Amino acid sequence: MSLTESTFILPKEAQLTQKQQQITQQILQFASQHLNAKTAAVFVLSGDAGAGKSVVLSTVFNELQKRTQSRDSVFYQTDNHLLVNHNEMLKIYWEIAGQTDYLKKKSFEKPTPFINRMNKRQKQADIVFVDEAQLLLSQADPFNHFKAANQLDEIMRLTHVLVIVADFNQVVKLKSYWSKSLLQQHLAGHPVEQADLNQQLRIQDDKLAAWINSLIEGKLRPLPAAADYELRIFADGQPLFAWVKAHDQVSGLSRILATTDFPFRVFSREPWYVTAGSLKLPWDRFNYQDRPWASQPETINEVGSIYTIQGFDLNYAGVILGPSVTYEPKTDQVIFHPEKFEDQTALQKRHQADLPDEKAAQIKILKNVVNILLKRGRYGLGIYAVDPALRQKLLMLAKK
C-alpha cells in the first residue's frame, strides 16, 4: 500500500484543482509580503472534511522548502516549520519527508515541543504552518507539558508568518475548543487573510454529503442514490465487518470505525472491546509504529477511532454509531447524548469562561466526531447503529 493511496497526499499523476492551485499561490504571495512582519501575519484556510485543505498545505510547504535553497528566492534560507497536534498525521508528514528531496523530518513536529524549544533558544521562525489547527490547545494542559494560556497565541509570538488550516466541525475536545468567533478574537490586531475550500473531494457526490450533514443536524432522510458510491445500512455488526473485509481484499484501505462510546484506557496492555450486535472487536491500540494505523494490514481486525483516523482517507469505511447517538420517533430527530459518551476527558469542563453554553459545546463535540467518521470513505460507507430505534429508522430509510 503506497503512501498516496492511504493519505491526503496526491499521487504524482494527479493535479490540484484550479481552486487549490489559486490558494497555493495566494499563500506563497502572502508569506513573501509579510516575511519581516513585526506582528505575526496569519493566513487562515478553512473548509469541510475532505475538501483538500491538507493537500494544499503540504504542496505549499514542499514548494516553500524548495525555494529556501534558491539564492534568487525571497525565501532563501528561511526557517520554516509545519506543526500538527495529531499523532497519525504527524507520521504521514514524516513519511512524506523521507520520499521528497526538499523536506526534512525535523521540520514536522507537534506544537508544544516547537513552542518550548523556540522559547528556550529565544528564537523566532520565519514561517509556521499548522495543520488541523482546530486541535491546538486553547487552555493549559499539564498532561501535554503545555503551561501557557493557548497554543495559537504562543505560536504567533514565535513566527513572522503563520498559515493555519482549520475546520471547526472537527473540534473533538473542549481543551482544544475553537470557534470562528474565538479565533477572530485571538487574531485581532494581526494582518489576516482568509480563503475557503468548499468543494468536497473525498465524497464527491453532493447528495451523499448533504445526507450526512442532515443526519448530523438531527434529521434523517431517505438514502440518496449514488452511481459511484456505495452507502449501506446494516442490521448487525458482523455483516458490516464482512463487508469491510471484502472491500479491503479487493480495494485495500477499508476499516471499521466507531464513535468513542465504548470503554477504553489509553496505553492499556489489555484489549478493550467495541460491541456491535454480535460483533466484538478490540479498539485500536496505541500506535507505537512509525506507519499510520490504517496503513497497517493487521489493523483490519481492530476498530479505529477519531484519534487514529482523523485526516486519513479510506476507500471504504464501516462506522459503528455508539450509544450516544439515538433516534426519537416522536420528534423524528437524531439525538446526541454527551452523558453516554465514553470519552469523557474530551468533554471535561474548561477553566476559561469562553463557552457560552457548555452542554451545547459538548453536543457539538459529539456531532463533530460523527462528521469525521462518516466522511472517511472515498468509495463507500457502511453504518451500524447500536441504538435500536436509530438502527430501525436507518434500515427503513434504506428500503425507500
Automatic annotation (TrEMBL):
Per the record, the domain of life is Bacteria
Provide the Schlafen group 3-like DNA/RNA helicase domain boundaries.
Answer: 41-387
Q: What protein name applies here?
A: Schlafen group 3-like DNA/RNA helicase domain-containing protein
Q: Which organism is it from?
A: Liquorilactobacillus vini DSM 20605
